[in-house]
Write a structure and sequence with these properties.
- The protein is an alpha+beta fold and about 210 residues long.
- It has helices at about 1-10, 20-35, 110-120, 125-130, 150-155, and strands spanning about 40-50, 60-65, 70-75, 80-85, 90-95, 100-105, 130-140, 140-150, 160-165, 170-180, 185-195.
- The protein has 5 helices and 11 strands; from the N terminus they run ααββββββααββαβββ.
- The protein has a single domain (about 1-200), classed as Lipoprotein localisation LolA/LolB/LppX (outer membrane lipoprotein receptor (LolB), chain A).
Length: about 210
């Protein structure tokens, strides 16, 4: 789920597509403008995770900061804190075990770059329509996109993804990920700072020598 969140969720603004061509173009233009206007952000998030293996939903609360599409930091607080940091192609996942911090290091830059390229090329809309069944709608406050993979590596991991963007700013407000593993996660995302100056230490990651 972490890798899915990284490649799909963190970079989800590039997923703003739909079947209605006029609405599609409006969302696409808005997202591109927002990516240029907001180069960094910080905020809070909560995740509600359900599964047939869980007796009751798990709820996690945390905070995040992101700079562009290449540096990201997220921390879940609570009795079992988790910290994720992505920078320069490496993802560090730090958890606490018996009171000691344990960090797992994953080199995921290639997967991230591949996904970014898939969703940001000039023919991205055609790629998505070919690989996903996509529906889009809007209400007074948000745009909503639902993407159901047809084939390929996404179909092997995901049943569907639902993305909601705020009107006006085109900022991500919620993300729903339904995985083939049986885990279903819903993320409520609230951006509290736009274009803040973020200390480089926030994105420090360990890289094997």
């Amino acid at each position: 789920m972490i890798k899915i969140l990284l490649t799909i969720g963190i970079f989800i603004p590039a997923l703003a597509f739909g079947q209605d061509d006029a609405l599609l173009q409006r969302i696409w233009d808005g997202v591109q403008a927002a990516q240029n206007k907001y180069t960094s952000s910080c905020g809070t998030l909560s995740e509600t995770r359900t599964s047939a293996l869980l007796a009751k939903p798990l709820v996690f609360h945390g905070k995040f900061c992101a700079e562009g599409m290449m540096r990201f930091s997220m921390e879940y607080a609570g009795t079992d804190p988790i910290r994720l940091r992505y920078n320069d192609g490496y993802l560090n996942v730090t958890t606490s075990l018996d009171g000691k911090a344990h960090t797992e290091v994953m080199q995921v830059g290639e997967q991230v770059h591949r996904t970014q390229a898939f969703f940001s090329r000039a023919n991205s809309i055609q790629n998505l329509k070919k690989n996903f069944s996509i529906t889009v709608n809007e209400d007074d406050k948000r745009y909503q996109m639902k993407l159901v993979p047809r084939t390929g590596r996404f179909a092997s991991r995901l049943n569907y993804v639902v993305v909601k963007l705020l009107k006006g700013t085109f900022l991500l407000s919620s993300l729903e990920v339904d995985g083939k593993s049986g885990v279903h996660s819903e993320f409520d995302i609230r951006v509290t700072q736009l274009n803040p100056k973020i200390d480089d230490a926030m994105f420090e990651v360990y890289k094997p020598q």
